[in-house]
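Pilot study result, target chain (107 residues):
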Amino acid sequence: MLSLLLILMKLLVWFLLENFYLDEHVRYIVTIYPVVILWFSGSLSNSDSPQSRSYIFAAVILAISCAMFVARIALVTWKHYKRPLYNNKGPNMSPIEIALTQRRLFL
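Predicted structure:
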């Protein structure tokens, strides 16, 4: 039960961080949710006792992670159209031209 609670807490904290604090860095990364959904689906399908507390708690976490995945896709889509990360209003430049205009050295 403790490990399931820790997974749920990490999932909730990551959802809040990626949607509100780290949005510009991880906007289009959504792979964590399908992995968690597949993991809990496999864990629930291989469980021996569907009436145990840990099974019910894992099923609740599975439902929460499915809801978070749908919410994440909706938020990413909405932010993509309402607040895009990149503007296409400037001149089209190649990656080399962009690198030459910057003062940092890429290694």
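One observation from the pilot: The chain has a mean pLDDT of 87. A full batch analysis is planned for the follow-on phase.
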